[in-house]
């Protein structure tokens, strides 16, 4: 019974078919598995009086801490007030664990945060300094509102070779149409868009940037993501570290991906870290192949 | 780091306190009980019931046997930590906004509100730390704040002075024996109330937080402002971290305007500043409302923040926090070793 043919998830409720009326429940059985985890099979009756078997696979990690005797004594205190009925350990209704927060103090903290922000607000910033300019009389109003709309033709229409048209178009700046021609120009072909727009797309935090991602192989199974991050961060800003880990044992599988903000940094890191000895193994670092 | 969320209160938190060993956290909120929590895993030890109004403040004595609490029901109560029993009730004319034990736990001060024709006062009671003993009714000392009511107060080193922060942004220094006012200095912007006052480990200097969006590090002896930390939002709380030279500030847009903004704009973050360089080094997000109280574990391993959202979030610092040093600090250390 301890070995179920199709392996269940780590905590599965199985409803047993037998609706026998006897309320004697089998004893809880605990078996130790080869990989150090424990399988606990317990039985209980659910609301309908059906017997429910719960199989849980749990790994115990012992974390020892030396504390002051006063503190140790206080941990034995009986609970009281609203918590009087709670069992040992944190009660699920009052205590929960929040999502992981990455907090790394840094002096250029503000700069890092600002970079992310400017990406979002860059268009607004660019447009802030722009002034409305009439194409007919160069006044500060829309062309459609120009008092000379009916009497004069737009400046550009007299010929794009016209000297006056040149600077007028240049003022339009990034995001404006190419060179005063009225044909549609897709955003990525427009003036100035190539530089600013391109970055913005690739700079997203979760966007995989294979251009500047390194594949690191022959990583020790004891490695931690943080260690890798620390090692690679000295070459430039690391945007993502992924260390493949075994779901059950929590040990590293031996390969990792490191994404850099800049490809030049990645190249430098690739050159320096290939063949670097880390935890008794020699790292192999190469550029990640583009996903097919 | 993974914060532990404590949901023991139904209303906005008002104060959080660690005991001296840093293993128990006490929290008060505008609902009518105090919660005690184990700091290492967030397990609730118990709750203290008896107050009939919103709780404003709590403090633990240095031996972790008693706590005192002040509430809007015009009382200060003394409780035994272990059992949750109320040992003593002191009645006042108005709500009690702040209580604090002195360094050896022999005296307790209480700051009362200015209301209903009564002026704001700071009252001092003698405390017997034995939970079995009878506590005296007598108020040993009463300091009346005639100009501007005190919002926060605390005991300096050796219980020599009582330092109070006022509603008008001034800080005053009283003789803790006689109650005589020795000094009164305009520290924060005029008419910007001081919202919090917390001590360094040796109580020779303290940090104040104010609605004027700054926190200041002040010397007890002459009330000299040593450092100013500038934030971009009104502050409700400030705390000095032991072990590392940081300060943590908590605040956010006023409770009234909270519903009109999202969490990002409301600036509901705990801000970390370097204590000496007065430079912001990071923020911790998580609350859905302004931070009303920030407290640091006296052993320096964790900090807790309580928000208007009714949650307490306990954060155990991880390695990156302890490893962080300025370039000059590293250089100084390297030279010292040579």
Automatic annotation (TrEMBL), chain A:
Domain RRM, first and last residues per copy: 212-290
Biased amino acid composition, Acidic residues: 11-20
Keywords, sorted A to Z: Cytoplasm, Initiation factor, Protein biosynthesis, RNA-binding
GO CC, alphabetical: eukaryotic 43S preinitiation complex; eukaryotic 48S preinitiation complex; eukaryotic translation initiation factor 3 complex
Family annotation (Gene3D superfamilies): 3.30.70.330
PROSITE patterns xrefs: RRM (PS50102)
Sequence segments annotated as region (Disordered): 1-30, 192-211
Transmembrane regions listed in the UniProt entry: none
One GO process term, biological-process aspect: formation of cytoplasmic translation initiation complex
GO molecular function, one term: translation initiation factor activity
Subcellular location: Cytoplasm
Pfam families reported in the protein's UniProt record: eIF3g, RRM_1
Principal location: cytoplasm
Homology family: Belongs to the eIF-3 subunit G family.
Assembly and oligomerization: Component of the eukaryotic translation initiation factor 3 (eIF-3) complex.
Function of the molecule: RNA-binding component of the eukaryotic translation initiation factor 3 (eIF-3) complex, which is involved in protein synthesis of a specialized repertoire of mRNAs and, together with other initiation factors, stimulates binding of mRNA and methionyl-tRNAi to the 40S ribosome. The eIF-3 complex specifically targets and initiates translation of a subset of mRNAs involved in cell proliferation. This subunit can bind 18S rRNA.
UniProt-listed PANTHER family: EUKARYOTIC TRANSLATION INITIATION FACTOR 3 SUBUNIT G
Protein name: Eukaryotic translation initiation factor 3 subunit G
Source species: Hyaloscypha variabilis (strain UAMH 11265 / GT02V1 / F) (Meliniomyces variabilis)
UniProtKB/TrEMBL annotation, chain B:
Main location per the UniProt record: cytoplasm
Coiled coil: none
GO BP, sorted A to Z: formation of cytoplasmic translation initiation complex
GO cellular component, one term: eukaryotic 48S preinitiation complex
SUPFAM superfamilies: WD40 repeat-like (SSF50978)
Domain of life: Eukaryota
Keyword set includes Cytoplasm: yes
Cellular compartments annotated: Cytoplasm
Gene Ontology MF annotations: RNA binding; translation initiation factor activity
Keyword line: Cytoplasm, Initiation factor, Protein biosynthesis, Repeat, WD repeat
Cross-referenced InterPro entries: eIF3i, WD40/YVTN_repeat-like_dom_sf, WD40_repeat_CS, WD40_repeat_dom_sf, WD40_rpt
WD repeats: 6-47, 48-89, 284-314
Family assignment from sequence similarity: Belongs to the eIF-3 subunit I family. Belongs to the WD repeat STRAP family.
Oligomeric form and interacting partners: Component of the eukaryotic translation initiation factor 3 (eIF-3) complex.
Function of the protein: Component of the eukaryotic translation initiation factor 3 (eIF-3) complex, which is involved in protein synthesis of a specialized repertoire of mRNAs and, together with other initiation factors, stimulates binding of mRNA and methionyl-tRNAi to the 40S ribosome. The eIF-3 complex specifically targets and initiates translation of a subset of mRNAs involved in cell proliferation.
Identification of the protein by name: Eukaryotic translation initiation factor 3 subunit I
């Amino acid at each position: 019974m301890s070995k179920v043919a199709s392996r269940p998830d780590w905590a599965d409720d199985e409803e047993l078919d037998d609706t026998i009326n006897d309320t004697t429940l089998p004893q809880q059985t605990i078996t130790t598995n080869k990989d150090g985890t424990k399988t606990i099979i317990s039985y209980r009756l659910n609301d309908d009086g059906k017997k429910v078997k719960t199989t849980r696979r749990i790994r115990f990690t012992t974390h020892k801490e030396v504390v002051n005797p006063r503190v140790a004594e206080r941990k034995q205190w009986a609970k009281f007030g609203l918590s009087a009925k709670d069992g040992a350990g944190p009660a699920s209704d009052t205590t929960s664990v929040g999502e992981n927060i990455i907090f790394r103090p840094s002096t250029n903290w503000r700069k890092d945060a600002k970079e992310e922000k400017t990406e979002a607000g860059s268009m607004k910033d660019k447009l802030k300094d722009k002034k409305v300019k009439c194409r007919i009389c160069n006044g500060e109003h829309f062309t459609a509102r120009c008092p000379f709309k009916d009497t004069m033709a737009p400046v550009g229409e007299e010929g794009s070779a016209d000297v006056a048209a040149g600077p007028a178009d240049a003022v339009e700046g990034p995001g404006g149409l190419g060179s005063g021609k009225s044909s549609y120009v897709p955003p990525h072909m427009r003036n100035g868009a190539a530089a600013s727009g391109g970055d913005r797309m690739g700079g997203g935090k979760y966007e995989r940037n294979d251009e500047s991602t390194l594949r690191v192989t022959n990583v020790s199974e004891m490695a931690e993501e943080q260690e890798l991050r620390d090692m690679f961060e000295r070459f430039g800003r690391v945007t993502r570290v992924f260390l493949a880990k075994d779901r059950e044992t929590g040990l590293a599988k031996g390969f990792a991906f490191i994404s850099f903000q800049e490809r030049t940094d990645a190249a430098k890191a690739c050159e320096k870290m290939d063949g670097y000895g880390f935890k008794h193994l020699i790292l192999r670092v190469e550029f990640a192949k583009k996903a097919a | 780091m993974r914060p532990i969320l404590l949901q023991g209160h139904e209303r906005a938190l008002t104060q959080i306190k660690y005991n001296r060993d840093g293993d128990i956290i006490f929290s008060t909120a505008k609902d009518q009980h105090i919660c005690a929590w184990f700091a290492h895993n967030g397990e609730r030890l118990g709750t203290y019931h008896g107050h009939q109004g919103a709780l404003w403040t709590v403090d633990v004595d240095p031996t972790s046997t008693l706590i005192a609490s002040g509430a809007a029901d015009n009382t200060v109560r003394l409780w035994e930590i272990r059992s949750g029993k109320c040992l003593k009730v002191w009645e006042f004319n108005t709500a009690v906004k702040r209580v604090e034990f002195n360094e050896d736990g022999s005296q307790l001060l209480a700051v009362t509100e200015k209301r209903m024709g009564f002026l704001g006062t700071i009252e001092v009671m003698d405390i017997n730390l034995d939970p079995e003993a009878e506590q005296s009714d007598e108020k040993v000392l009463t300091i009346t704040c005639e100009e501007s009511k005190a919002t926060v107060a605390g005991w300096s080193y050796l219980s020599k002075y009582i330092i109070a922060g006022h509603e008008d942004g001034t800080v005053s220094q009283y003789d803790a024996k006689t109650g005589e006012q020795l000094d009164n200095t305009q520290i924060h912007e005029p008419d910007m109330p001081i919202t919090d006052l917390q001590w360094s480990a040796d109580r020779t200097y303290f940090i104040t937080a104010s609605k004027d969006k700054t926190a200041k590090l002040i010397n007890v002896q002459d009330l000299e402002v040593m450092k100013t930390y500038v934030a971009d939002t009104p502050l409700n709380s400030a705390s000095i971290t032991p072990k590392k030279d940081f300060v943590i500030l908590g605040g956010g847009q006023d409770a009234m305007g909270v519903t009109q903004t999202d969490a990002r704009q409301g600036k509901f973050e705990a801000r970390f500043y370097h204590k000496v360089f007065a430079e912001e080094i990071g923020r911790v997000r998580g609350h859905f409302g302004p931070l009303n109280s920030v407290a640091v574990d006296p052993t320096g391993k964790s900090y807790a923040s309580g928000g208007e959202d009714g949650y307490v979030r306990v954060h155990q610092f991880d390695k990156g926090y302890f490893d962080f040093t300025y370039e000059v600090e590293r250089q100084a250390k390297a030279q010292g070793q040579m």
